[in-house]
Amino acid sequence: MMTILIAPDSFKGSLTSVEVARALATGWHRGRPQDEILLCPLADGGEGTLAAIEAAGGWTRQHATVRDPNGRKIRAAWLRSADGTRAAIEMAEASGLSRVTPADRDAITATSIGTGDLIRAALDAGVTSIVLGIGGSATTDGGSGLLNGLGAATVRDAGTCDLADLDPRLTAIHLRVACDVSNPLLGPTGAAAVYGPQKGATPTDVTDLDRRLERFADALDAAAGRRERDTPGAGAAGGVGYALLSIQDRFASFALRPGIDLVIDATDFAARLARADLVITGEGRIDAQTGFGKTALGVALRATTAGVPCIAVGGGVEPEGIAALAEVGAIAVPVVERPQSVEQAMAAGTTPIERCGERLARLIDLTKSTD
Length: 371
Hints:
The chain is an alpha/beta fold.
C-alpha cells in the first residue's frame, strides 16, 4: 500500500484544480484500489485560488456585495478560516476578466474597487491575516480603485491621491499578496503594454493607459512617500501590485510572494507531503513557462526536497517543460492519448485525466511487482 498525494493546478479554461485532482484520484483507484490518496488541489493566486484553498478544509465561504470592473454591484465570495483570524481573497472574484463579457470590457475605465470592497468585508469580519491573489484581473487602473475601496480619495486620470482616510484597521493586518509576475508598472514591459491587450486594450489604449498610470504614480508616490513603480511585481493586476507596494507601511506586515507558495501554505500541503510516498501534480500545459515558477515546478521542488518522487501530468507537454521538471527530479507525462487540437482536448472533460491516472497506477503496480 502506498500513500499518493495528488496536488495539481487547474487546466485553465477547461477544468478546476479540484476537478483535475478528483479525476486523477478516480483513475488511480481503478489501478490500485488499495492505496490511500490525499487530495490537495492548488492554484497560483489567480482564478480558482479560493476553490483550491477551500478544498483543503478549515475554511468557510463568505459573501459580500462589491463592485465589479464596470462598477456594478455583484455578490463575490471570500474565505474565512475556522478560527476567524484569516481570510483568503481572490481579486478575480470581484475585479476579474470573468466578471465582464468581451463586449462589456473597457480597458480604460475598468476599476479594481471591488477588490478593495472585499478586503473591507474581511476587515469587518475581524480578520488579522489576509492572503490576496491578484491574478486574472480585468483592470489597468494602477490600483486606484482598490485604494478608493479602502477609503482613500484617488482620481487616477486627474493624477490626484489622498491617503488620509485610508482604513485605519489596515495597521492590524498581515497581508501576503500572491503575485507571479515581475513586471514594473510602466513602459514596454509594464502593466498596460504587456497585459492591457488581454483586457481589451487597443494599441492606442495601451499608450493612453501608460500615460494615465504615470500621472497617477506621480500622485501616489508623493502621497505615500515611496517610489515603487519600478519594483518587480508593480505591474501585476494592472498596477494593483504597485498600489499595495506603495501603502505597505500601512499594514502590520506585508509581502509579495509567488502565488504557489502562498496557496501551498494555506492548504497545509507540507503536512500531506510528509505522509506521501508519491506526488502527482500537473497543469494544463507543461512548457517553457513551467520553468519560471508555475505550480508543477513548485510542487516538484518541494517533493524532491522531501525525498518523495514526483510525476507531473499535463494536458500538453513540450520538451522545454520536460527539461525544467527533469532538473528537479520530476517526470512529465502527457494526458493526451492521440493527435488532437487544443479545443478537442479541452472539450474532452475529465475522462482522459482519469485514464491517465489509471495508467500511472498500473505502471507503479508493474514496477512494484518486478522489485
